[in-house]
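In this notation, each integer encodes one residue's backbone shape. One such record reads:

___
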Amino acid sequence: MIDILRSIVLGIVQGLTEFLPVSSSGHLEIAKFILGEDAVGEESLLMTVILHFATALSTIVIFRKFIWDIIASAFTKDGKYSRSFIINIIISMIPAAIVGIFMDDLLEQLFNRNLILVCSMLIITGLLLYVADNAKNTNKKVGPLQAIIIGISQAIAILPGISRSGATISTSVLLGIDREEAARFSFLMVVPLIFGKIAKDLLDDSFSTSKIDFTDLSFGFIAAFITGLIACTWMIALVKKSQLKYFSYYCFIVAAIGFGYLAFFH
């Protein structure tokens, strides 16, 4: 029962923080550290992958009409924007895909309750959000050059504590991209990568020796999916109001709490 409750907590943390620019991976690592989840290496990474898969599905549900319209119009005469959007999504995936393929072993080591790294990266996330909040003239669309730059930000955000959505949305805004367009592009660009990562792990049989109970994974998945639906809808509304600085303050506070926990309780 305790393991199920821990999985639900981790699922809620993932679902709430995947879309908010405060680093879902950082929060997951902090939660694992405080809750005492002892799974490391492939076991810890398996839980992380499953929870990200749940929020990827919630992204598809939220943007299902937009995704359908993009796919349907891409093959029509007037589908220039749709074709451009799909191409830019593919371009944006390249940096993270390269990192994922060639640095997979190193990434597994980083996801091992490294609280000092997580808190340091949360501070960087907070600074990036604060700077981006002051960006002006955000009325452009995503082009190939912007897509590759945003993709590099996504690759860097693989580090636990660097918010993927925070890094990509902030980078987009600093490049002059429309804020709503930036949020939509940020949320959708990661979905193919998550599915690709899961497919790669399954083909490599990476989790064949994992001892995590699939009941725990199921409860974590459901919690992440439901809270992901709520958080995604909420974030879309928040992005329109241009209030990134409040998330930067939150990142600073969480980092301070993490460092405080290390100093006084560990």
